Structures are given as C-alpha cells and as structure tokens.
Amino acid sequence: MANKNLSEAKKAKQDEFYTQMNDIQAEINAYLDYDENTFRGKTVLLPCDDPDWSNFTLFFAQNFERLGLKKLISTSYAPESKTAKYGSLFEYAASQSDETPKNERGKIFVLDHDTNRNGRIDFEDLEWEYLKGDGDFRSEEVCRLRDESDIIVTNPPFSMFREFLAWILGGHNRDDESTYWDSRHLGGVGKQFLIIGNMNAITYKEVFPLIMGNKLWLGESIHSGDREFGVPDDYPLEAAGWRIDAKGKHYIRVKGVRWFTNLEHGRRHQPLQLMTMAQNIKHSKHKEVRGVGYLRYVNYDAIEVPFTDAIPSDYDGVMGVPISFLDKYCPEQFEIIGISLELADMAKIKQRLGRLNGGPRLYTERNGELVRQYERILICRRRESCQSC
Ligand SMILES: C[S@@+](CC[C@H](N)C(=O)[O-])C[C@H]1O[C@@H](n2cnc3c(N)ncnc32)[C@H](O)[C@@H]1O
Fold first, then answer.
1. Is the predicted pLDDT of residue 191 greater than 60, yes or no?
2. The model's pTM
3. CB-hemisphere CA count at 13 Å for 87?
4. Do 29 and 54 touch, CB atoms closer than 8 A?
5. What distances in angstroms separate CA 182 from CA 186, 188, 345, one per listed residue?
6. Cα(303)–Cα(297) distance, rounded to whole angstroms?
7. Of 18, 46, 48, 76, which is best to mutate to test ligand 1, by the most ligand atoms within 8 angstroms of its C-beta?
8. 262 FRET partner, CA 20 to 30 A, in 34, 62, 189, 279?
9. Over the stretch 240-252, which tens digit does the pLDDT of each residue have?
10. Interhelix angle 140-148/161-170, nearest 10 degrees
C-alpha cells in the first residue's frame, strides 16, 4: 500500500511538467512545412493548460494570424484540484485582476478577434474568465469546448494519458462511463489532436490498435533522448538531470517523451533507407547482426531485428523490431502486424521453462538458453506479392 501511494504521488508530481517553447515551435513547424494550412480556419483547444503563463497558449496566441486560426481556447485546472500542489510561483500568484483569486475554479482564455484594436490579433487580445467548475477536462463545460473545437493540443497530465486520449477520440465524459474506450468511437469523432505522452503509451491496448490502424502516429520532432520540462519552484529536484536557469526557473529532463498525433507530417511518408539482409550480415555496425544474421523467435513465426537500422530491405517474412521503430515508421513501406504483448505464444515458453518470468514477450534461443526480448512490434514490408501479411 505504501508503495502504491508512493508511485501515485510520483505520477501526480509528473502531472505538473510544463512544455518548453522550443519543443512546441519545432513540432508545429513540422506540420506547417508539410501543409501550411494545417491550422487555417480551425478552432484550437488547449485543455489542461495554464493560460496565465503556458507556452502553448503563448505560442498559439502569438502565431494566431500566421496559423490562420479561427479561434483559440485555452483552459486551466483549478489550483485547489491539483493532486500535486506546488503552485506558489505558477497559479496562486497568477491572478490577472484585483479580485481575490478563485483557486477552486479553472480558467478559460479565448482569442478570436482584435480586442485592443491595434490591427493585429495576438496574446494581448486574449480574454479570460473563470470557468464554472475546476476545469477538469472531463467536466461538462470542457467537454462542450472539446466538441466545439477542431484540433486539441496539449501536454496532458502524464498519469491520465489513456483517459485523455479516450476523451478526445471517444467523446468520453465523466458522467457517461459507457463511452469510455468504446471501440465504436475510436477515431470516430473526427477530432485532430497533438499531445505529449510517454513512449510506453504505444504499448497500451487502447493505443496500439490506433497505431496499427493508421489513426495515430508519432510526431515529427522528438525521436530519442530526453526532453526538458519546466517544473514549479518547489518541485523536488532529487533526480538526475535538473537545471535552474539564470532567472531562477527550474527544469528537469524526462526520458521517453513523444508527440502523439493524427495530424499529417512529411517525415512519416519518407521510407527508411535500408540494406539487404546479405549486406547487413556483412556490413552492419551492430555486432549482434554482423557475421551473425537474424535469429528466429521460439514463440512466434518471425525473425528478431534488434535495431531499426538493421531491418533487411529484402526480407518478405514477419520481423520483430524495437518500439522505437515507430519514430521512423512509414506506412507505405511497412505494415504493422501486431505487438509482442499480444502475439507472443507464452504457452510454449511455460512448457519450456515450467513457469513464466513476467508478461508476454518474444523469446530467442542462444546456446540452448531462452532469451527474453524487449517489447517488439511485428512488421512486414509492403509488397504486392508479400505472402506474410
Ligand atoms: C503535464 S502538465 C502540462 C501543462 C501544460 N499543458 C504544458 O505543457 O505546459 C498537465 C496539466 O494538467 C493539469 N491537470 C491535472 N489533472 C487534470 C484534469 N483532470 N483536468 C484538467 N487538467 C488537469 C495539471 O495540473 C497540469 O497543469
């Protein structure tokens, strides 16, 4: 129980990570490079934000005209409702009026015209008021904003990623549990979205079918390494990789972060440049492949490809690749068959080992010993004549 509380507290702390401007800029620019009209005439909703100071609100407001937006709406969660209460710097001190801050209520910021009549629409034209409730994204009033919007962009609370995606795609609200992850709603309501989450979300049973069905993919700009997020002043800086800038703002680095989206971008249509199987065996930079070749799995009919850049261009069968393959995935080049979590035949492994060491995974065999692999995505190259898919 103590452990559960600890891990929940840890998750709640991560709900207060704030996205940096350069990460937002780089990602949005990728969509504009692909199609400069991606946001034109659209209503963009930024939920789970903090419009008083958020970089999302700042970026979209400052670029309102360049993006050609019709309307920008941004909502924040009430300071009193946050599980991890830091807030001294961010919310409690952030009232923009003389009245006493209503810390039990969320805020809504709207931008759709030149309020100060200076000839341009930007951050200074944002109008705000308190929401009726706390700004929970599942509340009736924020659900209505979702329904009104065309594109939803945010870094949602890390601990609620599944629920948040379900809320976008399924039209879920907290008064109607029946719509929650109802498969009939997946991808059915026509919303576009761009949200930040952890790479591991790829393996969620609710998320992977969307990736397989080409209804969700990874964004353009974050592929590997970690990303820096702003944290409140009193966030405990015990982990490695933190920094305090010259103005005293605190940052920490987070591993495995990705953009998840259904907005088109150019990178995902660029096929990977790969070597043939023979070339890989001769020249691969990976010692696991060079001079060794490709092992077959014991509990699924496919070969193990431990690195994305070692995928053989001429292999017609099914291949297991690391989940980071999705950073390079081009749906015109490969078809996704499934994920090891669902396809691994664990009965075979139990028979061999007499027990299971954890959940479903693919196994190879080396010198008579079974080797448990990391999570793998099973793919097959797209070819008219390919027999395997
Ligand atoms: C990861 S932070 C990101 C903030 C901002 N979008 C950004 O990237 O700079 C997530 C935000 O969602 C808020 N939040 C947590 N639970 C929420 C809920 N149920 N409804 C709405 N917002 C929530 C958190 O308090 C936090 O401000």
1. yes
2. 0.90
3. 17
4. no
5. 7, 10, 27
6. 6
7. 48
8. 62
9. 788 999 988 889 9
10. 60
